[in-house]
Write a structure and sequence with these properties.
Number of helices: 18
Helix content: 40-55%
Strand order of the largest sheet: 1-2-6-5-4-3-7-8-9
CATH class of the largest domain: Alpha Beta
Radius of gyration: 21 Å
Number of domains: 3
Largest sheet: 9 strands, mixed
């Protein structure tokens, strides 16, 4: 599939992430979108005459070619929505970005990925929580996502580096710049064990409106979002709300009722938007990461002597990946969707599989 066409599709005025999904669904690929006739394009929901003309006249190709040169020069990895390596968790979000640009090394479909976010005005209380939380998470070998902002986000990334945990910073601008600039040395260290991710092309500034869009990626990439410390107004609460909308777990640390930078966490807990947590044991319990649960998985499966070939294939895949969406299971197992659906249903009824929020499947 042509990278040029993929990038060009993201640049068309009037074609957002949701409309782009429709175009690809109807046409089959980004390249086929540009080959489609105007009369066919305008029949696609959300695509009017003006947008169809913008697609047909290839007006975005010059800028797309420039972006391709930037990607190649700086060895940036690209992940298009339909790529197997694209995050299956994020793909399940209706407004998932069509294209992601990444510098570093990681697997976006690792078994355990969580986001940890918080205020830019971190207090000593928040810093202590962050230090302990990241150190305690190390034994679970997760990927930890945050936003590379001042305060809690920076503390998260620094502690990940200290504890040799893979960490990814999601940016609100292109990969040709860094905001805040004071985090440049931190960002460079992150490239050694994780990396930097954005949906924004080069030459995109860190404008205010980009950060809520950035936050949906932080929420969508993860199984759960942990809010360490936050005021009632701020990006951390937006991220938590987005995670809720994606049916992902949200956890928050409580704070004193008169503390401004705990007011957001207390609000999330009070309104049942987040589970109250005091430490790693709560997270392990709520996510099923307890040592007992981990040790029991394989012995339990070994007792299932009546697995057929297709069922065993799915068990092997989920043992390795942890959890996957149906589309990704189909790719990994090389089974047609209809056959896979029947197999999964049978395995659910026998208690072998569990369906998670976001239509992800994991072993029971």
């Amino acid at each position: 599939m042509s990278l040029l066409h993929q990038i060009a599709l993201t640049l068309i005025t009037g074609v957002g992430d949701v409309n782009a999904r429709s175009l690809i669904s109807y046409c089959g690929s980004a390249e086929e979108v540009f080959k489609c006739k105007p009369s066919s394009l305008i029949k696609i929901p959300g695509i009017g005459k003006i947008t169809a003309e913008s697609i047909i006249n290839h007006s975005t190709f010059n800028r797309a070619e420039k972006e391709m040169l930037f990607v190649e020069k700086y060895k940036i990895k690209t992940f298009f929505l339909t790529d197997a390596a694209y995050s299956s968790r994020l793909r399940n979000c209706e407004d998932a970005p069509l294209m992601l640009y990444f510098k570093g090394e990681t697997d976006f479909n690792s078994a355990r990925i969580i986001s940890v976010v918080g205020t830019r005005n971190a207090t000593e209380y928040g810093k202590e929580i962050c230090n302990q939380l990241i150190a305690d998470l190390q034994k679970h070998n997760p990927i930890i996502i945050s936003g590379l902002a001042y305060g809690i986000d920076s503390m998260v990334h620094k502690n990940c580096i200290k504890n040799n945990i893979r960490t990814i910073g999601v940016l609100g601008h292109g990969l040709d710049r860094l905001y805040p600039a004071l985090n440049r040395s931190l960002a460079e260290k992150m490239l050694e064990n994780g990396g930097l991710l954005t949906e924004f092309r080069s030459e995109t500034n860190p404008d205010r409106e980009n950060f809520p869009k950035r936050n949906r990626i932080i929420a969508g990439l993860s199984d759960a979002t942990i809010v360490v410390e936050a005021s009632i107004k701020g990006g951390a609460l937006i991220t938590a709300q987005l995670a809720n909308s994606y049916n992902r777990d949200v956890f928050a640390y409580p704070g004193r009722i008169d503390d401004e930078f705990s007011s957001g966490c207390n609000f999330l807990i009070k309104t049942n938007r987040a589970n109250l947590i005091n430490g790693i044991k709560d997270i392990e319990y709520l996510l099923g990461w307890t040592e007992l649960a981990i040790k029991q998985v394989k012995p339990q499966l070994s007792l299932l002597l009546n697995l057929n070939e297709d069922e065993q294939k799915i068990v092997d895949i989920l043992n390795e990946k942890g959890s996957l969406a149906v589309d990704d299971l189909a790719i990994q197992s090389r089974m047609v969707q209809s056959k896979l659906a029947v197999t999964i249903l049978g395995m659910e009824m026998r208690g072998i599989l569990i369906c998670l929020p976001g239509k992800l499947y994991k072993l029971a």
